[in-house]
Automatic annotation (TrEMBL):
The gene is ruvA. GO terms for cellular component: cytoplasm; Holliday junction helicase complex; Holliday junction resolvase complex. This is Holliday junction branch migration complex subunit RuvA. The RuvA-RuvB-RuvC complex processes Holliday junction (HJ) DNA during genetic recombination and DNA repair, while the RuvA-RuvB complex plays an important role in the rescue of blocked DNA replication forks via replication fork reversal (RFR). RuvA specifically binds to HJ cruciform DNA, conferring on it an open structure. The RuvB hexamer acts as an ATP-dependent pump, pulling dsDNA into and through the RuvAB complex. HJ branch migration allows RuvC to scan DNA until it finds its consensus sequence, where it cleaves and resolves the cruciform DNA. Homotetramer. Forms an RuvA(8)-RuvB(12)-Holliday junction (HJ) complex. HJ DNA is sandwiched between 2 RuvA tetramers; dsDNA enters through RuvA and exits via RuvB. An RuvB hexamer assembles on each DNA strand where it exits the tetramer. Each RuvB hexamer is contacted by two RuvA subunits (via domain III) on 2 adjacent RuvB subunits; this complex drives branch migration. In the full resolvosome a probable DNA-RuvA(4)-RuvB(12)-RuvC(2) complex forms which resolves the HJ. It comes from Sulfitobacter geojensis.
Amino acid sequence: MIGKITGRIEYRALDHLLIDVRGVGYLVYCSERTLAALPAVGEVTALYTDLVVREDLMQLFGFQTLVEKEWHRLLTSVQGIGTKASLAILGALGPDGVSRAIALGDWNAVKVAKGVGPKIAQRVVLDLKDKAPSVMAMSGTLVEAQGEVEAEVLEPITPVKRAAPAPNASAQAEAMSALGNLGYSPGDAAAAVAQAAGDAPDAETPALIRGALKLLAPKG
């Protein structure tokens, strides 16, 4: 299993690129958002990867963060969502947007992805809502990742461009944990924290907890 590759970009197309790793070229399929964030042809990049093996096909899919990779794995577990639809959703929303949409039950946000209709979007939200908290709590930079299976890579190279985690990702995780300790379900906690974080993107843990508790308080 190839869990990550590092190499020079030889060429890029609309939905994939070729990465040269010590003379071996890997075709890697990515979302539009990920492709747009990668460096130019001839420069070095690194991607987490997921290898899909079928009877008549082997495809490698690339992701800038572990969060993006995990959402791809979960999205493709939903009936009716293949790799193409998953990349379309991630390309339209980004991993943080997917986390927020699913935590809030916002299937309208999911259906903006090309090729994803209302019924499939609703199924994605229903099937994955309880799994959103654990993904939202993940930290997704290449530096923080541990235990990944790596392909053999180049000699020492220049720093790799990578996506930064959400500014208050750790605060959101701590807030969800606190709400869980108070007895709230993972789905309710994730939805409330996601909404509170949307209202105050730079809020720290105490402020997120207060905001989430206000949203969870009985109305009337």
